[in-house]
Design a protein that fits this description.
- The complex is a heterodimer of chains A (about 375) and B (about 90).
- By secondary structure, chain A is mainly β.
- Chain A contains one helix and 27 strands.
- In chain A, the strands form seven sheets. Chain A has a four-stranded antiparallel sheet with strand order 3-2-1-27, with no helix packed on it.
- Chain B has one domain: Ubiquitin-like (UB roll) (Roll).
- Chain B has a five-stranded mixed sheet with strand order 2-1-5-3-4, covered by helices on one side.
- Classes of the chains: A mainly beta (about 375), B alpha+beta (about 90).
């Protein structure tokens, strides 16, 4: 097996957590974000589609879902930046008896809000939400969503029937929005007991009824922490914004080469600013014209501008997947994304300039960032 | 009466770096034998079978040299001294 390199991190450092199809990696830099140190590979040979950091309540805890084709999918955590990982005797995220389901993959792990410091959320395939109230020690299936009457008509997308996006509302404690490919978005206003479809205005290009109640192939949703009513959505065809917490979605694909793509991230303080990576089409999921371009809006989607300084502009037929882009909380905000060809790019200045942080990782499926607490 | 489980890959680490686990108990079928292994090595269960109790699709179990997929699955008979081998299948990319 490969030799794993380890990193050291201190308070205020920036972490970029990278999940790939062959393991996880961690990059660390100081706040200037000019020089990066690489740690890994962790879980070599296993895919890591979900990775995250919990810096609440005095913790400095990394989480990773390592999925082995042979041995299944397990959650692991590390309190020393990856030197040691837990290896639970029993799987902590698994379907209860009676559901008739078996875990295929963990797609998302996120810490809860600051006012619920021991709560964590996990999205899995087949589409389900798991919640932990003890900082990740034990997990429970959200029965309300699992038993939703729409479930029998949800259809898997290319990545499987996965719950890939979890947005606990920053202000309203009982409100959580999730997204499933392909079921669309659902929202609960009572902490997970009841869920309703919430896709008004979002197109389903691949269905006879282009605006069904549910069944959209939502690829990613980003919610402003400062103005939670504002979100951006990258759809399987379609780029949207909401200004009313997702009750209505407005098409904002203004000036982009394609409204197909996977990731979308929003600025940590400026709710009008967001970044996407358009791809040519669902039948050719590569950057248009062989140019790797991030597009940024600074006016809530009224216009988008290409941000390509430092990115390859010739023969660059790249793919950036739904969770492979992230933005940090520093000022100016740093933006990071990884490609299926294993290139990781970073910008310390909100997308004005880009640098290849690593070239040659396994296919990148997840990129998350955190400031060491 | 004994059953000999031969294990490989990451399971070895979970069994204290043992390549074999001998269990001095008897069983008439693999379905009876596996819980004895889970009792000895609790971390094995969720890594070998799914929540539905099915063998993970990219693993194989051999009883006395024969793949249980070509025998009777978990109903495959075992005997005193049976060698039960758990191996990852050839798969990946």
């Amino acid at each position: 097996m490969p030799v794993t390199q380890h990193i050291d991190a201190k308070r205020g450092d920036v972490l970029v957590l990278v999940g790939t199809m062959k393991g996880a990696f961690i990059l660390v830099a100081d706040a200037a974000r000019r020089t990066w140190e690489l740690g890994g590979p962790y879980f070599p040979g296993s895919s890591v589609y979900a990775i995250g950091y919990d810096g609440r309540a005095g913790r400095r805890r990394l989480w990773a879902a390592a999925s082995s084709m042979h041995w299944g999918s397990l959650l692991h955590s590390s309190d020393d930046f990856g030197r040691n990982w837990t290896n639970p005797e029993e799987a902590t995220v698994k379907f209860p008896q009676g559901t008739g389901a078996a875990l295929a993959q963990i797609w998302q792990i996120i810490p809860g809000r600051d006012f619920e410091p021991d709560t964590m959320y996990c999205g899995v395939e087949p589409a389900a939400l798991f919640v932990s109230r003890d900082a990740g020690e034990t997990w429970s299936l959200d029965e309300g969503l699992w038993n939703h009457p729409h479930r029998e008509r949800w259809m898997p997308g290319g990545g499987g029937l996965c719950l890939h996006t979890i947005l606990p509302d920053p202000v309203e404690p009982q409100r959580i929005r999730i997204a499933v490919s392909t079921a669309g978005m659902y929202v609960t206003e009572d902490g997970g007991a009841n869920w309703r479809a919430s896709n008004s205005g979002v197109r389903a290009e691949f269905l006879p009824d282009k605006h069904p109640e549910f069944g959209q192939c939502v690829h990613k949703v980003a919610q402003s922490q400062q103005r939670p009513e504002r979100m951006f959505l990258q759809n399987h065809w379609g780029l949207y914004r909401t200004d009313d917490r997702g009750e209505n979605w407005l098409d904002v694909a203004n000036g982009v080469p394609s409204d197909f793509g996977f990731p979308v991230v929003i600025h940590p303080r400026d709710a009008d600013r967001a970044w996407i990576v358009p791809l040519e089409a669902d039948v050719f999921r590569c950057t248009p014209e062989g140019k790797l371009r991030v597009y940024r809006t600074s006016d809530a989607g009224a216009s988008w501008e290409p941000m390509a300084d430092g990115l390859p502009q010739h023969d660059a037929y790249e793919t950036v997947l739904r969770d492979a882009m992230s933005v940090d909380t520093l000022a100016p905000a740093g933006v990071y994304f990884g490609t299926r060809s294993g290139k990781l790019f970073g910008s310390p200045d909100e997308g004005q300039t880009w640098t290849a942080l690593v070239d040659g990782l396994p296919p990148i499926v997840a990129v998350k960032t955190a400031i060491v607490s | 009466m004994a059953l000999n489980f031969v294990i490989s890959g990451p399971l070895r680490e979970l069994a204290g770096n043992r390549g074999e686990v001998r269990i001095d108990r008897s069983a008439s079928s693999l379905a009876e034998a596996l819980p004895l292994l889970w009792a000895e090595c609790p971390a094995f269960r969720d890594r070998v079978v799914t929540e539905l109790g099915e063998l993970r699709p990219h693993l194989n179990i051999f009883v006395d040299g024969e793949n249980i997929r070509f025998l009777d699955g978990f109903s495959t008979a075992v005997r005193d001294g049976s060698e039960i081998v758990i191996l990852p299948a050839l798969s990946g990319g």
